[in-house]
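Thread: "does anyone have the structure for this chain?"

Original post by V.I.:
We have the sequence but no experimental structure in hand. Need at least a predicted one for the grant figures.
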Amino acid sequence: MAVELNAWTRSATGKGAARKLRSEGRVPAVVYGVEPQPLVVEAQDCSRLVNEGALGRLLYLRLQDVDETKIVLFKDMQVHPIRGDIMHVDFHEVALDEEITTRVPIVIEGEEDRVADEGVFAVHLWEVEVSCLANQIPDNIVIDVSGMVIGDNLLVQDLEAPEGVNILTGPDEVVAAVVVPADIVEEEEEEDLEVDEAAEEGEEDEEGVDEE
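Reply from O.Q.:
Generated one for you, tokens below.
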């Protein structure tokens, strides 16, 4: 589902202009279409949308100073490596009748309902790449893992995408798995080692008797 974000056009570019915008609580942005268009968005609004999972989603970008609305994909952002502040955002203008490629998060359900088999549940993939019409991008793809037991693997090919959505990520990639805990594996390896050592000692004793 698309959400709205207010934006304004900007003419001043460069490091100095971008620094000034950030000091005012705003973030420089660019919407890519026929020609790149520099914009400004509110840092607080942008952070809220990111926290709500809007990255990779469809937005209605309301350009307040020119009374124009663009349908865009919230494509990417740059974040300060220390403070975590959003430094810059990229939008891509889209047409609703053309397929686009984006990434969709995977939501895990039912982990707490799994049988108590001492298995360790591990997630290997948190999102998949998909292609679909811009207005058909799902918020997420949900999987139920309540029936998984030790030794089970859930692959990309096992995911059920909504109608009109094609998953592009490799079908054999592992999404989630239930494995034997490391301490149990170590105990079994130690037991196997003890058995092997005992067998070797037995063979040595037999060889000693034969020599006598």
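V.I.: this helps a lot. The chain has three domains: 3-94, 101-180, 182-212.
O.Q.: and The first strand starts at residue 3 and ends at 9.
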